[in-house]
Description:
Layout: H1 2-15, E1 26-34, E2 37-45, H2 46-53, H3 65-70, H4 72-80, E3 83-87, E4 90-91, E5 94-104, E6 107-117, E7 124-129, E8 140-147, E9 150-156, E10 162-166, H5 172-189, H6 191-201, E11 206-209, E12 212-215, H7 219-245, H8 253-272, H9 280-302, H10 309-337, H11 342-369, H12 374-384
Amino acid sequence: MKRLVALLLLLAACTATPVQAHKSSDAYLTLIRDGTALSGQWDIALRDLDNALDLDADGNGEITWGELRARRADVAAYALARLVVSAAGETCPLTTTAQLVDRHTDGAYAVLMLAGKCARGGATLAVDYRLFADLDPQHRGLLNYVENGTSRSVVFAPEAPRQIVGGDTGGPLAQILTYVHEGVWHIWLGFDHVLFLVSLLLPAVLVRRDGAWQPASAFRASFVDVAKIVTAFTLAHSITLSLAALDVVALPSRWVESAIAASVVLAALNNLVPVVAGGRWVAAFAFGLIHGFGFAGALADLGLPTGSLALSLAGFNIGVELGQLAIVAGFLPLAFAIRGRALYRRVVLTGGSAVIVAVALAWLVERAFDVALTSALAASIGAVI
């Protein structure tokens, strides 16, 4: 039993990703067009640049301002070689006018200030984005394109590295589809959100009777329980997502991310030591309010276009719900089919919840105290095993 617990903790340590567990590799590009003149900025995660250029000269795991400044020419050359903007069939050369450092919710970013000029006007711009295409197939570039006081958002991915912006290419339908896509991917790649939802769903095919988990007798009862949980979570995070995205309410990102990790811990711990067995939808609503602020942080990084703010906000929220429903649709029938086996109660519910608690506790410590815990935890547990 001790060895099994150690193995579960090792799995938790190995699967616990860095502090912002729901952040994938993203870079944020802003392009502002004024006639033939271009300006803007490009925020690129230092951890991604380090993977490409080995910026950490002394190998101590931290990239200092001095190390970044010593390689600023290499950073600019590397980035600009992977971004091509053209108008009317001719390239618009870009240069970096300054390099700064800024912090996003998931760490430090290099900020490249951009300037350029197109030889010819043209109604649209063609943007070819291939940053980290050879290193990270999941990297995305999030473009906020501004022209005539109106902003539009575009997402670059390895399968879609070239986009046309300007003119009438960013109509309402294109905008809402972009944000639906982002909402789906955010929930699927948002491991903390997914683990919170899974923690609430695991007991849905069981009932608490005589101090023990027993198989639910009917699929309908499990379906109703799941529907309550999903509806409560959806309603709650939609409220705070909208309030935060519209700048009505703002909370510090560290508080939000720490609270999200704590919600995962409590939801999974409730499966091991049931305190709330029949009203998990209440917990889904209460903690869903916090998760909504987390969704808002991702939406803020993507940017809300001024020309279609309501549609984009709705599209992102719809995408989150579609991604969430896909998880439920895959989980519920399978869980119900095996609910009567000891494997489900002992391994899936108990063992799975224990792993989730360990992972989320590591996230909570990292986020609350800004320390790198998971690598040290994996090493120490490996030594015990």
